[in-house]
Amino acid sequence: GENVEQHPSTLSVQEGDSAVIKCTYSDSASNYFPWYKQELGKGPQLIIDIRSNVGEKKDQRIAVTLNKTAKHFSLHITETQPEDSAVYFCAASAGGSYIPTFGRGTSLIVHP
Amino acid sequence: ETGVTQSPTHLIKTRGQQVTLRCSSQSGHNTVSWYQQALGQGPQFIFQYYREEENGRGNFPPRFSGLQFPNYSSELNVNALELDDSALYLCASSFQEGTNEKLFFGSGTQLSVL
Q1: What is the average per-residue pLDDT within A69-83?
Q2: pLDDT number for residue B100
Q3: How far is the C-alpha of A57 from the C-alpha of B44, rounded, in Å?
Q4: Test mutation, B51, B59, B103, chain A, max A CBs within 10 A
Q5: pLDDT by residue (tens digit) across B7-54?
Q6: How many other β-carbons are positioned within 10 Å of the β-carbon of residue A48?
Q7: For a surface tag, which of B11, B17, B86, B114 has the fewest beta carbons within 10 Å of its beta carbon?
Q8: A45: which chain B residues are within 8 Å (Cβ-Cβ)?
Q9: Which chain A residues have a beta carbon less than 8 Å from that of B99?
Q10: Mean per-residue pLDDT over chain A, rounded
Q11: For A29-46, how does the pLDDT look when each residue is reduced to its tens digit (9 = 90+)?
């Protein structure tokens, strides 16, 4: 089955800096890559997703890049704010399975 | 808010007992997935129900079972509870059609097994 590795496990930045979280996946059949943000006491919330037919997607301060050849994808957050502090999860799923496999998560801490 | 509600929010059980967790999916969704999230880990897939039928199962023993009802709400049942079952149990609903794979999670049920 699919295996998703996520790094780093903890990321500490100053407000206004950029943050990058990286993930690799093992199943070449995976073609859907969502990212989730989980705040304390809440369930994961989808923040951005990308399909394998595109290499990059942006939504305001958030962007995701995908390298299918290397089987890795990354989340980029620019101009970080304290409210960006949360645990971020990457995930991958093969076409039509509707069952994503999650990484272990990255705890992002943004210091004011 | 996602519109996915789970109950109860917290639960304490003792080893060997049985537990039932409930999930109401978002309006218009036809699929419910259950995940187990241990402290400091990512969600682990338990199983998924699509139109009342089990549509996939992760690496969990048979004492983890589920149901989906005609209104697409769902239950997760765990028999013979073990200490390692202590975790946050997440329900996610979705509308499976074509390439629509977005999951919408509830806030979870925190289960403690003593």
Answers
A1: 97
A2: 62
A3: 26
A4: B103
A5: 999 999 999 999 999 999 988 888 999 999 999 999 999 999 988 899
A6: 17
A7: B114
A8: 2, 105
A9: 32, 51, 95
A10: 94
A11: 999 999 999 999 899 999
